[in-house]
Amino acid sequence: MTTKTLAELNVALDAEGFLVNPDDWTPEIAEALAREEGIDLTDRHWEVINFVRKYYEEHGEPPTLRAITKRSGVPTKELYQLFPKGPAKKVARIAGLGKPKGCI
Amino acid sequence: MKRLVILGAGTAGTMLANRLASMPEMDDWRITVVDATREHYYQPGFLLLPFGVYSKDDVVRPKRYYLPAGAELIFAEVDHIRPDQKSVVLMDGRNVAYDVLVIATGSHIHPEETPGLMEHEWHKSIHTFYDFEGAVALAKALRQFKEGRLVLNVAEMPIKCPVAPLEFVFLADWYFTHRGLRDRIEIVYATPLPGAFTKPKATEMLGNMLAERGIQVVPEFNVMEVDPDARILRSYDEQEIEYDVLVSIPVHMGAEAIARSEMGDELNFVPTDRHTLLAKHYDDIFVLGDATDLPASKAGSVAHFEVDAFMENFRRYLDGLELLPLFDGHSNCFIETGYGKGVLIDFNYDVEPLPGMFPLPGIGPMPLLTESRVNHWGKLLFHWMYWNVLLKGRELPIPAQMSMAGKRL
Ligand SMILES: Cc1cc2nc3c(=O)[nH]c(=O)nc-3n(C[C@H](O)[C@H](O)[C@H](O)COP(=O)(O)OP(=O)(O)OC[C@H]3O[C@@H](n4cnc5c(N)ncnc54)[C@H](O)[C@@H]3O)c2cc1C
């Protein structure tokens, strides 16, 4: 798998743009990854990012879209506004985690 | 006597009951199978029913005929499982105690999860072929459809048999061409996936086949609601697709009994060890077939390979040995592409479908990821094998673990 780096912060990304090492993650990296996606992070974004990171700590994998909406209280429609096109995948990337399963 | 209880007498549960019943080590065990309904449906047949290929008799048979005589059979719905008491509570109040439990309660469609789907236009202009009643209603709708836009929409992943929606649009192209109506009917395939299939090489190949047949693909479409009067599908990010006939593959979930037992994830699938098939956090509960949360296809072929892996490990389990990581996510599918042809794909957790030749002992090599006539006969042969070989637990000439023999990297 080819890797590239997030230029401003010198952190390794895999071919699909996910952090190679989730431990590298910092809030600054989240801001930079979000900018790449054209997203300006608001408090509401951070609520979702923090939820997703907590879920990952407990379950060892990022949540599916359904797990986010069912447990974080943020409705699906709003998630699509916050993280357009494939929110589960986008949040996981911005939160420094791997790609969520569910695509088999 | 020790007790092994199987919940669900579908593809996985039936296969397993037959395999266990003929295992000498099980002589001092009592095997009990619990299922809520008496009919066994050949679900792959639901794909062909709408096109008039199969009749009811081909796809529905009594469950009892296919279960071993030595097993106790209880027709009742499971209310919930009590792992702390090693027992299963049935809806009629009975308790069934177990030493080892196997959950094989499958997955089921939930059209009510998508607003507008299962309202006054259900089985009229809005259809599904993912259950028997739906497939029969759709057969009639397709016979009467003369012009307009046919939209196939997958609501959410995972679904059973992830190639079935593709097969449906291929078969629809063939069906309407055959009836001389193809130039008056548009076929659209709207999916939440980024392309035609879940794996890169197969997506490219199948994507080209869809384009050649003039089937329009709308990727990354996550349906939010259906407007049954305006005949519009609307996505969460406000894309709209108009249709005249909608064929939906609704949200899939595991059995309600799993939710009542508080043993499932958001979709009621049971968290399962990828390689041993033990339910996570339990050492006396296994999960087979569609009921698992494994990142493998929900398919009869996968259930078969899981049963193979389970049987080998269960001998070790009885001897008190550690379980081996025997299941590798092996999946093997025929894809009907219409015009009497088909494509064969073979893959597992780590290896995506690759081109090459598949060595099938007794039948001969079959081309992989290439359209051919041989593969189509493979699918029809599968119908016969399902009832006569697979369910009865006889050996198939395909090893449980995927082999790289014949595959081109
Ligand atoms: C349209 C379509 C096409 C398909 N095509 C293919 C194909 O070409 N190839 C392939 O390999 N697979 C195909 N499949 C998938 C295949 O049919 C399933 O993956 C397979 O049947 C799963 O087996 P299972 O035993 O896990 O579940 P099932 O066979 O669905 O059995 C589950 C059983 O559990 C019982 N049950 C559920 N809840 C309870 C309860 N609370 N109490 C008691 N009993 C309960 C049900 O009554 C049922 O009998 C297709 C499926 C569909 C819908």
Description:
The complex is a heterodimer of chains A (104) and B (409). With 104 residues, chain A is mainly α. Chain A has one domain (1-98): Orthogonal Bundle (Arc Repressor Mutant, subunit A), CATH 1.10.10. Chain A contains five helices and two strands; from the N terminus they run ββααααα. Chain A has helices at residues 27-36, 43-59, 65-72, 76-82, 87-94, and strands spanning 4-6, 11-13. Chain A has a two-stranded antiparallel sheet. In chain A, a hairpin with a 4-residue loop joins β1 (4-6) and β2. The longest helix of chain A has 17 residues, at 43-59. Chain A is globular. Chain B is α/β, with parallel strands linked by helices and 409 residues long. Chain B has three domains: 2-109 and 253-318, 3-Layer(bba) Sandwich (FAD/NAD(P)-binding domain); 111-251, FAD/NAD(P)-binding domain (3-Layer(bba) Sandwich); 332-390, no CATH class. Chain B is built from eight helices and 24 strands. In chain B, the strands form eight sheets. Chain B has a five-stranded parallel sheet with strand order 5-2-1-9-20, covered by helices on one side. The longest helix of chain B is centred in the last third of the chain and has 19 residues, at 300-318. Chain B is globular, with a radius of gyration of 21 Å. Chain B starts with a strand and ends in a 19-residue tail after the last helix. At the A-B interface, α3 and α4 of A face loops of B.
